[in-house]
Amino acid sequence: MSSRMRRVRCELDPARRCGRALAVAAFAVLAVVVILAAAAARPQTAPPSAPVAAHAEVDGLALIPPMGWYPWNTFGEEPQNEKLIREIVDALVASGMKDAGYAYVGPDEGICFSRGADGKLTTNLARYPSDLRGLGDDIHMKGLKYALYTDAGTKTCSGAMPGTKGYEFEDMRAFADWRADYIKIDWCNSDGQDIVATYSELGRAQRAAGRPVVHSLCSWGDGYPWQWAGAIGHMWRTTSDICGPGKADWARALRIAFANEKLHEFAGPGRWNDPDMMIVGMPGLDETQNRTLFSLWCHMAAPLMAGNDLRAMDKATIGVLTNLEAIAVDQDPLGVQGHTIWNDGNVSLWAGKPLFDGSQAMLVLYLGKYRAERRITWEELGLKADDGLYVRNLWTHETSGPHKGGFTVSVGPNDVAFLRVSKTNDFPIPPVLVADTYLVSLRSTGARPEILTGRVTVTNKGSSDLAPWRIDPKSLPPWLTVAVTGSGRTQTFVNTVSTKGLKKGSYHAIVRADNVEPVSGRPMSALYYDVDLEVVRDVRR
Ligand code: GLA
How far is the CA of 76 from the centre of ligand 1 (A)? Predict the structure, then answer.
């Protein structure tokens, strides 16, 4: 597995490669399907071991599962370029996905960098004319986060890009210079490498580079990452790829869900089991299947990285991907991964997911041929039989109750009943944060001291007001102060720069803000943004 190789030609115009790519892809897909079907069937249950302390406790990142988009499931290695990523970014904003919390976006294999004679990674400017840094800046300016890709071995899986082996510190510095916020690190071409030592070194290299990043480990379950990766990064793939590029595979996605759910005890805030990017909205799945897979990913507190072509989504797919009531289960501040309670073949009950307000999520998955009814008792959910409970259907958005003893669901083939059960008929949504920008860029041209300001506004689309965000003033450089104004749903970070006494040059600060979710009292993921200051002339004192 670790020496998988595929072909990708970064230098060619994607349009010219299409015919050849299709032929190669057809063969590759066949081969991949055979290999992956075998791999997915591998037992994924790890020997028992206690979860490790999460690295996220230090950087505060990904205390809820990351949400975003990655190209691989639809586009494979080709064609990925700046134009595609920019179009996807626009579609992510226009479709309402940004407002639903999707933030991390960027190229996967098609990143196409190369290593220069000096050992440093360089952008392929034919593919990314704005430079990988310029693309990242534009993504940040749109209030989104930048996701990039590399490999822990000698080459990426395609064989076309250099891996980080032997260049861990240089490469993590390059990713920091490109202003990546999320790095997926694959495990191809890593023969003979010790997996824990390799990823640990990459974690040290990331910290040395000084930019906090969500570290997504991608060893497809090799090396049982759930046992150790939480101390290094924030999420790890638990299984092989969910599909070959461009080809959704319903049966395979279900096998992955059932493998992933068994690892539930290893997940928690800042450390997530990753059953792979979603195939929701890809050709080959109907609306019911999309809804079902999305519900399973949400119930498993899986990272929600969409993998479909966001430029060509129908309304139903947008409706699935932006259903805030389902997303609320995934993004719940307690960070508990739901799992199966029983599975009788056609019907399975998924529960074990307490939520921040004292309610809990449950899901009935039905894989039989004809619509069926099933009674779920409160005792099966660990609740008292005589509790009078309200039931919220997260897809029809209807509440019923109070029900005593249990609840009867009616589910069609391949569908789910995805429900939230509570003692009250109030079903709050935890914080969903949407920023207008993550990059403040200021410029001073005069020799006289100036005061410059730039703002970042963050809106909470959840249902509770947040306390003012906290920033440690000691973490800021002397030329920058930050005040937080506004309250409740919308708060603004006012960044004030004093240029007094600054020498000509470029200055950069990463601002970290922290908050606490008010209903559960749990720490929220830290919010980071960049402040750039360009000083054109030396400034007087
Ligand atoms: C591996 C990963 C995929 C994707 C490809 C890129 O197969 O599991 O998600 O990143 O590499 O080559």
Answer: 8
